[in-house]
């Protein structure tokens, strides 16, 4: 009987070794796809490094943006790619040059996930068209997002192209749609982005040299978009949207920092100084962009008599949950200023923590407070590095405003 067991044993060993080989994560470029509305696929590129070590990492690639995801590991035969910044992860089974799996958000109870597919060695985000549109998308566009109710929201698109590759972003008064990247198609442009939170897919079809129709796809649905070329396109003044309620000139919050100590503007640390208040959330990509700007700026300028306070609103009204998420955020960007916990994300929580503020509409919202403790300006939204000149203009205005308040 034993002589019959050896061939079976050897076949089992060969099968196991074969499976292990198939499960190997390969270093290099992969093309990923996440399913969005109407079963469309939002493509993105990512690079794997140190795949054969305990320090395996993944870098998400969108235009000039690079988002590094550490602590990649295997759970039995399942690859797990944590996305710590957004309390999410990608998991999948590797079979040769292909990964099949799901993108899952931890903060959503029993999240069914978004289907994920990846192929090794594919370096083109979109397949190139045999013939591409001759209409250039370079420059500024008025972009209208048309809701199902017929309401519209006016935004600004900024794009540039080189060797058939298109990059850019769409700016709103809340922030921007990150680093979009794509290609010309036969009749327009396809763009996508995935920085770890939500996949985006935009399909643009030119109607003539100065207008386009299109669709904006997310996992939640589809929005029609209309574009008109406009070299002078601009958003509403971000300093005109939120304001203090009549009769108020200062803020009276008293909220816990990550050590559980209550902080207010009456504390000695903030007396006689210019203070920047950032209303944020660790889940908010534009807030992360703002912190990436503010953290090194604070280290360079704090000796001038300026302070920063972050007031965060998180996915759960749970201090321990918020502490974990916000500590990770502080460490990621090296933010050496206080971040306070304001409560669960939502306008009601903001109204409870900051009852003096009227017309709050966006994370982040930034308040500028003078040496007397009075609110001088409120800036809604944040358009980051993906917006090019708009970002540079913001930095210039920010520094000019701080200089002005410090000189008083």
What would your notes on this structure say?
- The structure is a single chain.
- The protein has 408 residues and is α+β, with helices and mostly antiparallel strands.
- The chain is 19% helix and 40% strand.
- It is built from five helices and 26 strands.
- A nine-stranded antiparallel sheet has the order 4-3-2-1-9-8-7-6-5, with no helix packed on it.
- The longest helix is centred in the N-terminal third of the chain and has 21 residues, at 2-22.
- It is globular.
Key words describing this protein structure:
408 residues, alpha+beta, 9-stranded antiparallel β-sheet, 8-stranded antiparallel barrel, 19% helix
Q: Could you give a quick summary of the protein structure above?
A:
By secondary structure, the protein is an alpha+beta fold. Helices cover 19% and strands 40% of the residues.
Distance between the termini: 96 Å
Strand fraction: 35-45%
- Helix/strand-derived class? alpha+beta
Mean pLDDT: 92
Q: Evaluate the radius of gyration.
A: 24 Å
Number of strands: 26
The helix content, as a percent range, equals 10-25%
Q: Strand order within the widest sheet?
A: 4-3-2-1-9-8-7-6-5
Uncertain stretches of 5 or more adjacent residues:
6-22
Task: Please give the count of helices.
Answer: 5
Global morphology = globular
**Main sheet summary:** 9 strands, antiparallel
